[in-house]
Design goal:
It is built from 24 helices and 30 strands. The protein is of the alpha/beta class and about 700 residues long.
Length: about 700
């Protein structure tokens, strides 16, 4: 990676003397960008390109080359890659289009294979190139003129990436790197992130993703990177369905985008809704100092926008300083009688420019006030030139000490001030929400540093689980029978209702007496998966007489439902008392691996779609976060005078299932539905556990 971002010699294969061609543009950008190493244009017909000696092939160059930029038509790429391999070039950036993006997957695979054989890594194909501030290297065919700075952009979209170069200039955003990943035939986001996390120039990473390859590795890498540096992601398009394992009936809830969203949040990634928001965030994050605490102060000359900013703070997770006495004291010198020193601090429309500056100075000097949101409504007496200078001075005072964002509202005067100051890198915005949003991103990024690490599955009896799965697999089944699922639950320490499988009516009565009435009875047959549909479930049986009637009905129903079904017997189980019904599970996502799910369960699950997802395994803290994130969380906190439910016990089950699915990669779906959650201290009861697995899946460990 070091040789990709700081190469000791760059060859441009397909360099051209024709200024309209991409191969010319790349050489020109490398030279104009001030690259310190040697550039070798490769072209069999030319002697010299842009003042540099040209060579017929890379093998004709005697000096060391670390990086090759390939700009020859698709049909010539394979021999070029082989030749670069022979020359010992470590990395190739293949600009050429016309591979897997147009269905030519085989051609792309061949290129990667040839590259692998000679130890060459490939970025692309179908990319616009790479910029690296570490080497002052602009090996792209973009417009040139990239300013160095602290933001690294990794983009899958080429066109958007090139457009971003222009945008970085107009937004005065400096880049540490700009990498186009294109078809990701070999190197992908995770490889680049591993370099960028250690790169001293990079303060923030912006990822533009269209589709994910090896999502599991990406999430793992992101979780580590975000503990050190903020990562902002924009993901376009909703990914294809089928993300959650199709066998699970809750799969329909997943929508791959919801999974992506939750996984990114869990990995500590800041997901922006638009390119503009992402730019605002990375620009602010790359420059703002780390806040020394959580509490922000809003200073405004207009009550209305002050209230809007308060709403925005709530939406973006920005806390407000709330010590009334200290607020009154801090602003007493600038506050008119009819103003308000409560936060938002409203200086009113009477405030002069110097009152305004003084109030912001008071925030800067107060040790308990950690960041400032400065709002300004244009007034009849506002003077643009004076105001512009004032904000510039305030920002200069804050810079490096405390984060500050500005929002100005008004007519042309304010619009001019915004444009001028933004071009200078001052975080000034037209809308209050736009101003608070980057500050919220800064606070969220800061919270990543104390995210807990992953936990282990050491306290589970995995040998028993594997034995059961192997035995079921030998019978050619991809699901576990109720008694087997119960045994698996027992092996991971999950409390299930007492139950027995009875093969005769007499056994069933004896089992019910042993468990104690009321009981539930269910048909047991490998040929009947959806027991309720088959009339194979009887609830709340109070005594022997009810049990005997139900037994006969169950057998009759099952035979009518599927005459060929082999009926093993019935399961007699403890009747679980009602609690708040939740659903807890883990499904294998084709892109991201095991994904844990928690939601409101029972009969509401399909209707409410109130579920949260995180990459499995989840830590205790993440499990609690998931539970708290669903809309029906108040039900667990207790409504109408009820007490709080046993959320800790629910979180433990969630964690256990996620650890199990992570440890036993054969398990494709495990779902407890419902999981009844009782009052605090009274625990939870799993009513039903369903386990699907893939007997072919070998045990893969990351
Ligand atoms: N070794 C060295 N040079 C060679 C070789 C070779 N094996 N083969 C050909 N060349 C030379 C050619 O002679 C030519 O030089 P010349 O102008 O002196 O004759 C030069 O390499 C380029 O070859 P051309 O045949 O002229 O190809 P052209 O430049 O028209 O196109 C390109 C090549 C740009 C790679 C094209 O095939 C392509 O893929 N374009 C799309 C690029 C793209 O958009 N990438 C995705 C970016 S992301 C986005 O969407 C913006």
């Amino acid at each position: 990676m070091q040789r990709l971002f700081a190469p000791r010699g760059v060859a441009v294969i397909g360099a051209s003397t024709n200024s309209a061609k991409i191969g010319f543009r790349v050489v020109k950008n490398i030279i104009d960008g001030g690259y310190g190493g040697s550039v070798y244009p490769i072209n069999p017909k030319a002697d010299e390109i842009l003042g540099q000696a040209a060579y017929p092939s890379v093998e004709a160059v005697e000096e060391m080359i670390d990086l090759g930029i390939v700009a020859v038509p698709a049909a010539h790429v394979l021999p070029v890659v082989a030749s670069c391999g022979r020359k010992g070039i470590a990395n190739l950036v293949i600009l050429t289009s016309g591979f897997s993006e147009v269905g030519k997957t085989e051609e792309e695979r061949c290129i990667v294979e040839v590259a692998r054989e000679s130890g060459v890594r490939i970025l692309g194909p179908n990319v616009f190139g790479i910029y690296s501030a570490a080497a002052s290297l602009d090996a792209t065919f973009g417009p040139g003129g990239i300013a160095p700075g602290g933001v690294a952009i990794v983009t899958q979209s080429g066109a958007l990436g090139i457009a971003m170069i222009g945008k970085t200039a107009s937004e005065s955003l400096g880049l540490s790197a700009l990498v186009s990943v294109g078809n990701k035939s070999d190197l992908g986001e995770a490889d680049l992130l591993e370099y960028l996390v250690a790169d001293e120039l990079t303060r923030v990473v912006l990822l533009y993703i269209e589709g994910v390859k090896d999502g599991e590795r990406l999430v793992r890498t992101l979780s580590q990177v975000t503990r050190k540096k903020p990562v902002v992601v924009i993901k376009s398009g909703r990914s294809k369905r089928g993300a959650m394992a199709a066998a699970s009936h809750t799969g329909s809830l997943a929508g791959a985008d919801a999974v992506f969203d939750d996984l990114m949040r869990e990995a500590g990634v800041l997901r922006a809704r638009s390119v503009q928001e992402a730019f605002d965030w990375v620009r602010f994050l790359s420059d703002a100092p780390t806040p020394q605490g959580d509490e922000a102060v809003i200073v405004t000359n207009g009550g209305g926008i002050g209230v809007l900013a308060t709403d925005a703070c709530e939406e973006y997770g920005v806390q407000l300083f709330d010590e009334q006495g200290e607020l009154a004291e801090a602003f007493k010198g600038v506050m008119p009688d009819f103003g308000s020193s409560k936060n938002p601090v409203d200086l009113t429309g009477q405030a002069t420019a110097s009152d305004y500056a003084e109030a912001l100075e008071a925030v800067l000097e107060h040790s308990g006030m950690h960041s400032a949101i400065a709002l300004y409504c244009e007034t009849a007496t506002s003077q643009a030139d004076q105001f512009e200078g004032l904000l510039r001075d305030v920002y200069a005072r804050y810079r490096g000490r405390k984060p500050i964002v500005f929002s100005l509202f008004g007519g042309r005067t304010m619009a001019d001030v915004i444009r001028t100051l933004r071009a200078e890198g001052v975080p000034v915005y037209g809308d209050v929400y736009e101003a608070v949003s980057p500050l919220g991103a800064l606070y969220r990024a800061g919270r990543n540093e104390d995210r807990p690490g992953r936990e282990s599955a050491d306290d589970m009896d995995l040998a028993t689980v594997r034995r059961i799965l192997t035995a079921a697999g030998r019978e050619g089944r991809g699901f576990l029978l109720a008694d087997e699922a119960a045994e698996v639950a027992g092996a991971i320490g999950l409390s299930l209702p007492q139950s027995r499988v009875a093969r005769t009516l007499k056994d069933a009565v004896a089992a019910a007496q042993m468990i104690g009435y009321p009981v539930v009875m269910k048909i047991v047959s490998r040929d009947i998966i959806h027991k309720s549909d088959a009339g194979g479930v009887a609830l709340d049986l109070q005594d022997d007489a009810e049990l005997i009637d139900a037994y006969q009905a169950l057998i009759r129903n099952a035979k009518a439902y599927k005459p060929s079904a082999v009926i093993t017997g019935v399961e007699v189980a403890e009747m679980i008392r009602p609690g708040v019904e939740t659903i807890v599970g883990v499904s294998r996502d084709p892109a991201f691996g095991p994904v844990a799910m928690f939601g409101l369960g029972g009969i509401y699950v399909e209707v409410m779609k109130d579920v949260a997802f995180r990459a499995a395994p989840v830590s205790r803290r993440t499990a609690h976060e998931m539970i708290a994130s669903i809309r029906s969380y108040p039900l667990l906190l207790g409504v109408r005078g009820e007490g709080r439910k046993d959320i800790d016990a629910a979180a433990r089950v969630l964690r256990k299932l996620s650890l199990l699915a992570d440890a036993c990669r054969e398990i494709s779906d495990i779902e407890v539905n419902p999981l009844a959650v009782y009052d605090h201290g009274e625990g939870v009861r799993a009513v039903d556990v369903r386990i699907l697995f893939d007997p072919q899946e070998e045990v893969k460990r990351p």
